Amino acid sequence: MNTQSYLQISANLAAVNQRVETAAQRAGRDPAEIRLLPVTKFVPEERLRELARLGYLEMGENRVQEMQRKAEHLADLDVSWILIGKLQRNKARVTAQVATEIHSLDSLRLANTLNRHLEALDRTMPVLLQVNTSGEETKSGFSPAEALAAYEEIRALPHLDIRGLMTMARPSEDSEVVRASFTQLRELRDRLSPTDLPELSMGMSGDMEIAIEEGATIIRVGSAIFGARPTT
Ligand SMILES: *Cc1c(COP(=O)(O)O)cnc(C)c1O
For site-directed labelling of 227, which of 40, 46, 153, 199 has its Cα 20 to 30 A away? Predict the structure, then answer.
């Protein structure tokens, strides 16, 4: 263990938790309703051991191969791996084996493939439907209109348990542009089913306060915990 990075991660987590608490209070919410999911993409295994020592055993990854490699290296720890990035159907089988949750379910075909692999493993996977609320072509996810139909079909698959919705806001200096994505996700959830879809995964290092104000129950935070990622 590297004491310096351990202390840095610890201090960063304390700062993030303080931001969550302040935002929750301002919104009149209980901070305990908001789950902090550390996003560990590009973060090396030694840092993840430090994170685990601090009591955080849920880790969000956006690439299946990286998740699989880390799961092997950290097999001695009881880590829950949560896929938050684009899932190709040819990686659905390994994801069904390694992940404990998927936040980025974005197509019906993928849902059917996953369901089949999960059936073979006799598992049920909690999933969130990713919704493209920013309208950007580069972002994955169902359009809000597609999500309505997809929800009904995916709900019928016995090995997927849809727990809620996930989105990424358009990166913008204008907080109202960011907020519009989060409001849209919450309103879509309310139209689908507020009782069957309790989870809203939205908000990252730069916009978690706005997401919390709009009802986020899960925030996915990377750089505010681990520092800036390499830009390649
Ligand atoms: C990288 C990533 C995050 C975390 O982003 P930060 O700005 O580093 O907090 C959250 N969600 C998804 C889907 C990501 O890929």
Answer: 199
Ligand 1 centroid – CA 122 distance (Å): 31
Distance CA 164, CA 2 (A): 37
C-beta of 70 in contact with ligand 1 (< 6 A): no
**Sheet (strand 199-201) strand order:** 35-38, 218-221, 199-201, 160-166, 125-130, 101-105, 80-83, 58-61
Tell me the CA–centroid distance for residue 152 and ligand 1, in Å.
28
Mean pLDDT by 10 residues, the chain (232 residues): 93 98 98 98 97 98 98 98 97 98 98 98 98 89 95 98 97 94 98 96 98 98 93 64
Residue 232 pLDDT: 57
